[in-house]
Write a structure and sequence with these properties.
By secondary structure, the chain is of the alpha/beta class. The chain is 35% helix and 22% strand. The N and C termini lie far apart (58 Å).
């Protein structure tokens, strides 16, 4: 079956499904494969559960015309998403970066959705499967698409750009994330800049943080930009006016009080305000959108629990995000502070060095106690015998269950695999 025929069936369906556990009635099921599963084995069940067609790449039942046999299901899903995006012809904003891309995406969505029919990446479905699914969730009524792009190896962003064909893009920052796949910080810069490369090749718009020297250097002399800064003369100027504990900013003398904590979120806010300004929204409209955004999913959340104030930022972590989180934590006013920090994953050969560097950084913070959790941090306990290290979460749990923590400001941060939000049960 030709791609345009599959697209026609897609338009007549209720959308795309990839999991038989939550099949949408009359949806188009794609039998994806993974390391531990083969969607072809569930194709019959998908039809029984309500799918109208099943796209497969292994012969399941040659006599049932509801099975669409293709060479490769994943490649077909990606090609269909690209074809659909071409047919829609709407503006698409692409986002990538080492830290803050999901928060920035949510902020952009928050300012645009009251005024435009906007579709954005759900959660962090930002990979070679998530991006196609995001594109296929857009319809003829969609006015703006916001697509988050994640990567842990070179050429992934370039590939996702070929599928999504963004009209504009923003890179939050270049940090020490996924060093195992990128090889080095220079590898991170090169890989993330594949978004810039695509935008330049297609004469598309770059949203540029002019306060970030690395960003400015990567953009170079390319002039199809929309720039923002706190201090420089740029297209949009946003100033940070307060950060204890929530951030406040001003845009054209309009004060915007956010529900975000951490100075590291300032540029995420500024980027959203810049993109909203580009789409002709007024400062008062932007204020309303930003102030309505409440962070969720363990990202920069403030939780009042018993007598403690908890800064829950446990969705993910890498050396760069850990450092800025600690610097922000250092500036908080409560003299009674505890940071519970979990292992950082995907650092490859640099893991031991980066974990030791973070522990050394922590030691320099005189007004804070630390609990380090996980095997990577535990390896550094000999260098710092006076600090508390817990090899496993269970060891931390035992300690918390016999320790009273009260009237304390607590930072909880670690990589997703550590699931440190579980700490809330024991404080």
């Amino acid at each position: 079956m030709e791609l345009n025929q599959i697209h026609h069936l897609f338009l007549e369906s209720s959308g795309v499904s990839t999991d038989t556990r939550n099949i949408k009635q009359d949806s188009l099921f794609f039998a994806l494969k993974g390391a531990n599963f083969n969607g072809n084995s569930f194709a019959h069940q998908a039809l029984e559960n309500g799918a109208c067609y099943a796209v497969i790449d292994e012969v399941v039942n040659p006599t049932d015309d509801r099975f669409i046999l293709v060479d490769n299901v994943l490649e077909t899903l990606q090609a269909l998403a690209h074809f659909h995006r071409e047919q829609l012809g709407l503006p698409i904003i692409a986002l990538t970066g080492s830290n803050g891309k999901t928060t920035t995406k949510e902020l952009i969505h928050a300012v645009l959705k009251p005024h435009f029919k906007t579709v954005a990446t759900v959660g962090n479905l930002n990979n070679h499967i998530g991006v196609p699914l995001t594109l296929l969730s857009m319809t003829a009524d969609t006015e703006i698409g916001i697509v988050e792009m994640g990567a842990n190896h070179a050429k992934e962003i370039a590939f996702l750009c070929k599928i999504a064909k963004p009209n504009m893009g923003y890179i939050t920052n270049f940090g020490k994330a996924h060093l195992e796949g990128f090889g080095s910080e220079e590898g991170v810069v090169k890989a993330k800049s594949e978004l810039y490369d695509f935008l330049k090749t297609h004469s598309s718009l770059i949203i540029l943080n002019s306060d970030d020297a690395k960003q400015v250097a990567q953009v170079g002399t390319y002039n199809n930009t929309c720039t923002f800064s706190e201090t420089l003369e740029t297209d949009v100027n946003v100033k940070l006016t307060a950060s204890q504990p929530f951030l406040s900013v001003t845009l054209k003398e309009i004060s915007i009080k956010t529900q975000l904590v951490g100075v590291y979120n300032f540029h995420n806010i500024a980027a959203a305000l810049t993109i909203g300004t580009y789409f002709k929204l007024t400062p008062l409209q932007l204020k309303k959108g930003i102030e309505a955004y409440i962070p969720t999913n363990n990202r920069s959340q403030i939780i009042q629990q018993n007598s403690n104030e908890i800064l829950l930022d446990a969705y993910n972590a890498n050396p760069s995000s850990m450092e800025v989180a600690l610097e922000n934590f250092k500036g908080l006013e409560n003299p009674n502070k505890l940071a519970i920090l979990g292992d950082m994953f995907e650092l490859g050969m640099t893991s031991a060095k980066e974990h030791l560097a973070l522990v050394n950084h922590a030691v320099s913070m005189q007004d804070c106690r630390f609990y380090f959790v996980g095997s990577h941090f535990y390896e550094q306990n000999k260098a710092h015998p006076n600090l508390l290290f817990f090899k496993t979460f269970e060891e931390l749990q035992v300690h918390l269950e016999k320790t009273t923590v009260s009237n304390t400001t607590i930072l909880i941060k670690g990589s997703r695999g550590m699931a440190l939000e579980r700490v809330l049960e024991f404080i």
